[in-house]
Amino acid sequence: MSEERLSFQAEVSRLLDMVAHSLYSEKEVFLRELISNASDACDRLRYAALTQPELSADDPDLKIRLVTDADAKTLTVADNGVGMNREDLIENLGTIARSGTAAFMNKLTGDDKKDVGLIGQFGVGFYSAFMVSTRVEVLSRKAGESQGWRWVSDGRGEFTVSEADDVARGTRVVLHLKDDEGEFLDEQRLRRIVQKYSDHIALPILLGTGDDAQALNKASALWTRSRNEITPDEYKEFYHHVGHAFDDPWLTLHWRAEGKIEYTSLLFVPSAKPFDLFNPDRRHRVKLYVKRVFITDEAEGLVPPYLRFLRGVVDSEDLPLNISREMLQHNPMLAKIRAGIVRRVLGDLTKKAEDPEQADSYAEFWENFGAVLKEGLYEDYEHREQLTKLMRFRSTGAEGLVSLDDYIGRMKEGQDAIFHITGDDIESLRRSPQIEGFKARGVEVLLLTDPVDEFWIPSVAEYQGKKFKSVTRGGADLSRIKAESEPEKDQEKPAENDLGSLVAAIKLTLAEAVKDVRISERLTDSPVCLVADEGDMDMHLERLLKQHRQLDGGAKRILEVNPTHPLIRRLTDLAAKEGAAAGISDIAWLLLDQARIVEGEPIPDPAAFSRRLAIVMEKGLGLAA
Fold this sequence. Notes:
By secondary structure, this protein is of the alpha+beta class. It has 4 domains: 4-218, Heat Shock Protein 90, CATH 3.30.565.10; 223-354, Ribosomal Protein S5, domain 2 (2-Layer Sandwich), CATH 3.30.230.80; 392-486, Rossmann fold (3-Layer(aba) Sandwich), CATH 3.40.50; 490-620, Four Helix Bundle (Hemerythrin (Met), subunit A). It is 36% helix and 19% strand. The strands form 4 sheets. A 9-stranded mixed β-sheet has the order 1-6-5-4-7-3-2-8-9, with helices on one face. Strands 16-15-18-17-20-19 form a 6-stranded mixed β-sheet. The chain is elongated, with a radius of gyration of 32 Å. The N and C termini lie far apart (86 Å).
C-alpha cells in the first residue's frame, strides 16, 4: 500500500498553535502525556491477554522505554502495549477532540487563557509533542496483527499513513526535536522529568536499550502505598494521568476497605467539568483493577451515573482476574464496592458542605457538578436524604447559594410549602411575573434552571414535612402569609361585581385559548400571567418536552389577572358599562399574547397580534374613527 496523505479533522493549524504555545506552562509535560498514553496501551493489552494470552506471548513483560539519539536529534517513547492499526491511527491521532470535534471547535473563543482550559478538557495530550518537535513519527503494530503502520506529521494540517515492515508490537513515538530543544536528549533531564510526573506509573519506564537500560521510576501502583507516603504533588500527577486531566483535583479520596471484601480506592473530584460530563451514555471514567491488573474503565455498576464526574482507580483483591465485562454487571462483590464508594464520597462531600470555611469551595463544586448530583435524587432512594442535604440553590432570598435547611429556616409565618420556579436562566426567573406576590410577602422562591429539576422534584415531593410547590401552578394561596408592606390606597382592588364582569368577558373571548381566567394573588406589578392548573404538567417541563419532540399539543393554561394593576382596573370600569364587553376583545387577546411572550412561549398568530396592537394603539392615540 502506498503512502496515504490525509487532513486532520479540525482546524488544526489554530489548535496545534495553541497547544504548542499556550496549553502548558512547562514544555516538559509533553513527556508526561506520551508516557501516560503508553501506560494506557499496556494496561489494555494486559486485560485483553487475560482471555487471549497469545496477544502478549511473544513479549509478555510490559514496559515503557525512552531512547535518545543525539546524532539524529530524536527522542523515542516506546511501549509494547496493545498497539494500533491503520484505522486506529487515523481515529486516535487524526481526529482532534474525537469525542466532540464540532462542539469543541465552536467553543474556542480566541482568548488563549480561556481556550487553554477548554483544550485541556478534550484529551489532546498527544499533540503536546509538537511543542518540542518539528516532526512526529509514530510506528505501531496492533497486538494479534502482522502488519505495521507509520504515521507522520509536522502538525501543520496534514499527516501521512503508510505500511511499515519490521515493526514490533506496540507503539513507538519518535520526536524529531527542534534545534533549541536539545535538553530533552540529556539523560539526567529525562530522569528528573519522569520522577516528577510519572513516578507513579505501575510499569517500568526504562532509559536506553538492551539489558543495560536504567529504570527511572518506582514502578509501583500509587494507590497501594500508604497515604502518609504520598505527597500532594504525587496525588496531583496521578490524577493528571488517570483522568487525562489538566486541572488540579478539587477533592482526593484514598482509602482501603478491609473485611468481607477488600479493595483500595483512589478517587478524585475534578475542579473543572470534564468535557463528556453530559454525554447521553452517562458513563463513569473510574478504572477497575484486580490485584493491580487493569480490567476495564467501563465497569457498569461500579459507580452510579450521578457520580460520573469521579476519576481514579478501584483495585479489588476478591474479584477473579478473568472476569468479563458481562459478568461484572451482576457481580454481588461489585455491588458492595459500589455501595462503599457511594458512602465514602457522599460522606466527604457532606463534610465539605457543612464546613462554613469551605462554603466558597463547595459552591464551586456545586456549580460544576450539582446538576449531575441531582440525578441521584430520583435514582438512589437509599441515599436520597443525604443527597438532599447536599443540594444548593439560587433563590430570591439571597445572592449566593442556599441549602434547603437555610430556606426552611427563613420561611414566613403561615408558609407551609417550599416554593420554586423552573426556567432556562436565573435572570429571566428573577423577572418572572409569577414570583411578584411572593417577593412582596418576603417569601423566598428557589430558582431552578437545570433540566433535571423537572424530574427530581416530583420524585422527592417534600423535605422535612414541607412539600415542594411550583409558583407557576394555580391555587397559590398567599392569603395566610402576611405581606411585608400594606398595599397603597391606589392599588386597592375594584369591586368584586365589577371584577366578575371583566373576568367573564375575558373568559368568553378567550374560551378556546385558555382553560380558565382567574383573579390573581401572585401578581403585584404585571397585569397578567399564565399558570398551570393543579393537575396539569408544569409549563417549563411541557416546553422542554416539546423542544425534544417528546410531546405534541399540551394542556390549556389559566390566565390570571392582577386586579390592582392600572390597566386591569381601567378594563374593569369598561366592562361594567352596558355593551362595552365587546370592545375589550382585542385587549383580551393582547393580554394573553403578552403573558405568552413573558413566559417564553411563541405567539400562535403573529399577524393577528400585530393587527390588534395597531388597533389598540390607534384608539389610545385618538386616531381611530
